[in-house]
From TrEMBL:
Keyword list, A-Z: ATP-binding, Chaperone, Cytoplasm, Nucleotide-binding, Stress response
UniProt function note: Molecular chaperone. Has ATPase activity.
Organism per entry: Sphingobium xenophagum
Family named by the database record: Belongs to the heat shock protein 90 family.
The protein, known as: Chaperone protein HtpG
Pfam families cross-referenced by the UniProt entry: HATPase_c_3, HSP90
Length: 628
């Protein structure tokens, strides 16, 4: 195969995002510049894995050098560090595409966080955002890349000082690897230690000791190489031979993060299909947790040959999990597209997902504190499964944890909730919103508190959707406290609670009827409330209507052309309501009062009055009457 390359050197400017990124990397202070070496070795290992895959269909690409290898060459005299691989290599065109641009979403978010966290944990973000090659400019005043694509009879170089431009030029084959890529770093004065064996060997063993490609270290240009990483597949080793530090090291390599795994799942499945699994739940939230694409991050291998990192091994609500699956049954000569439709992959998907959820359940039973940390990071994502995965909904409900009106700063499981249902309570009550503090003080909760009924407080957007799917737990349906009637009459008050008194006369009933007529264009009904104990009014959704919070969410997204009119509930026992009901209607006073009560309910619900000027005018008239 012959690939066309440039016939003369060509100088190009970096795209804007890369140029800005390089300035930030060079001029910022990082807590750990060692990150660059791990990133370059990771890129080299990926190149070897890609060649191993392409070599299945085209064995000639491997030539007489079939074994993948990464070579790290030190030259302290010339202040140079070289990382070379015999992987897939790049053409001149591919150099421009790969090394001159950042073809990934999230670049803007990366640079914003890098600017905010430089000097603290900024360097730890580099691997997370896929911009690892550029980290070389933290230690190098100039970077040269020589590469020859497997099967090509041409080679090219890429050179840059990181100041805004790069040059791509053809080179003689003698000046490039026989196959693969050589990255030469001309080290800065304050980075000379990266040409010393002790420093480089320590970093590689600590950060890249488990990449699936052997690594050789050459202390001098003419010295013999020393094996410092054997390229053994960690996931194929017995668990008894792997330390926690080994797992953490491999996790950082495969996940591109610098935290530790909060939970590790490592096992080998045998039976109809055989495959090895090594997955990690991160200790901290990945930056792309809520990326609209919601892609997973599980690598698929077939008999140690890397196939793809885009196979849908896990459902989207487990996209925070990092790791790999190595199958012994998938054919190596299938395309990535065909693999995704394979019944073998379907069985692997089901097995790995079930095992991971089962392990999380065991963790929640045996180490509640460790599980709580995982839930605090990834609970909102796991709850997407309640909406999307009917088959595993029961297992996910068992894993779910909630804040509630009785949990304080802790979390409650549904098992805990159901165990403490009140007499005659037939539903699991919840309130959705966007702010936990506002939720906990909602007037709609008052009647539930008076009866000691626990209400789940659900502040995540996904809560507005899964709760509408007819979900139940142990036969108890979920019911919103802001939808329909509260039906609390059969549930006794807690001991010591004041028993609500009935209105002293029919004036309140007349006022309710008047308010219903006056507000007919704004509400679907005005009725006496049994859920209010201290507040005068609140808004709820009709029994057959959409939950109030979901309605607001859809309306704000432009997905709800017309919203249903809410129900205004009035507390007939409230002293203010009884006084209003007995007042005269001079100058339209009662009409103003009815509208002001509706606006008061809107404000308590986190909304604004629909007509601010009319609200102000009514308030002016009321205050003038009060002081007149």
């Amino acid at each position: 195969m012959t690939t066309e390359t440039a016939t003369a050197p060509e100088t190009h400017a970096f795209e804007a995002d890369v140029s800005k990124l390089l300035r930030m990397m060079v001029h910022s202070v990082y807590s750990d510049r060692d990150v660059f070496l791990r990133e370059l070795i990771s890129n080299a290992a990926d190149a070897c894995e890609k060649l191993r895959y392409e070599g299945i269909a085209t064995p000639s690409l491997l030539g007489d050098d079939p074994q993948p290898c990464i070579r790290v060459l030190l030259d302290a005299d010339q202040n140079r560090l070289t990382i070379e691989d015999n992987g897939i290599g790049m053409t001149a065109a591919e150099m421009g595409e790969t090394l001159g641009t950042i073809a990934r979403s999230g670049t803007k978010a990366f640079m914003e966080r890098l600017a905010a966290e430089a000097g603290k944990e900024g360097s730890q973000l580099i691997g997370q955002f896929g911009v690892g090659f550029y980290s070389a400019f933290m230690v190098a005043s100039q970077v040269e890349v020589f590469s020859r694509r497997a099967g090509s009879d041409e080679a090219a170089s890429w050179t840059s000082d990181g100041q805004g431009t790069y040059t791509i030029a053809p080179v003689d084959l003698a000046d490039a690897p026989t196959r693969g890529t050589r990255v030469v770093l001309h080290l800065m004065e304050d980075a000379k230690s990266y040409a010393e064996r002790y420093t480089v060997e320590r970093i590689i063993k600590a950060q890249s000791g488990h990449v699936p490609v052997p690594i050789m270290l050459f202390e001098k240009p003419d010295a013999d190489g020393v094996d410092i990483a054997d390229g053994a597949a960690l996931w194929l080793k017995p668990k008894s031979e792997i330390s926690e530090e080994d797992y953490a090291d491999f996790y950082r390599s495969v996940a591109g993060q610098y935290d530790k795994p909060a939970h590790t799942v490592h096992y080998r499945a045998e039976g109809r299909y055989e495959y090895s699994v090594l997955t990690f739940i991160p200790e901290t939230k990945p930056f792309d947790l809520f990326d609209p694409d919601r892609k997973g991050h599980i690598k698929l291998y077939v008999r140690r040959v890397f196939i793809t990192d885009e196979a849908p091994i896990l459902p989207r609500y487990l996209r925070f999990v990092r790791g790999l699956v190595d199958s012994a049954d998938l054919p190596l000569n299938m395309s990535r597209e065909m693999i995704q439709d394979s019944p073998v992959l379907g069985a692997i998907q089901k097995g790995v997902t079930g095992r991971l959820l089962g392990d999380l359940q065991k963790l929640s039973d045996n180490d509640a504190e460790a599980y709580q940390r995982i839930w605090e990071n990834f609970g909102p994502v796991l709850k997407e499964g309640l909406y999307e995965d009917f088959e595993r909904r029961e297992a996910l409900l068992g894993l779910a944890r909630f804040k509630s009106t009785t949990s304080g700063d802790g979390w409650r499981s549904l098992k805990d909730y159901v165990a403490q249902l009140k007499e005659n309570q037939t539903a699991i009550y919840y309130a959705t919103g966007s702010d936990l503090d506002r939720l906990s003080t909602s007037p709609q909760l008052e009647g539930f508190r008076a009866r000691g009924i626990e209400v789940l407080l659900l502040p995540d957007q996904v809560d507005n959707f899964w709760t509408t799917m007819g979900v139940d737990y142990e036969g108890k349906p979920f019911k919103s406290v802001t939808q329909g009637g509260a039906d609390l009459g059969l549930i006794p008050l807690v001991e010591g609670a004041d028993k609500p008194t009935e209105p002293e006369n029919a004036a309140v009933a007349d006022f309710l009827a008047f308010a219903k007529t006056t507000l007919a264009d704004a509400v679907s009904d005005v009725r006496a409330s049994d859920r209010l104990t201290t507040s005068a009014v609140c808004l709820v959704a009709p029994e057959s209507g959409m939950d109030r919070q979901l309605e607001k969410l859809l309306a704000s997204a432009g997905q709800l052309p017309t919203a249903a009119l809410p129900v205004l509930e009035i507390n007939p026992r409230h002293a203010l309501i009884q006084k209003l009901a007995s007042s005269d209607d001079a100058d339209g006073l009662k009409s103003d009062l009815a509208h002001l009560l509706l606006d008061q309910a809107r404000i308590a619900d986190g909304e604004q009055p629909t007509d601010a000027r009319a609200f102000s005018d009514r308030l002016d008239r009321l205050m003038s009457r009060a002081v007149g």
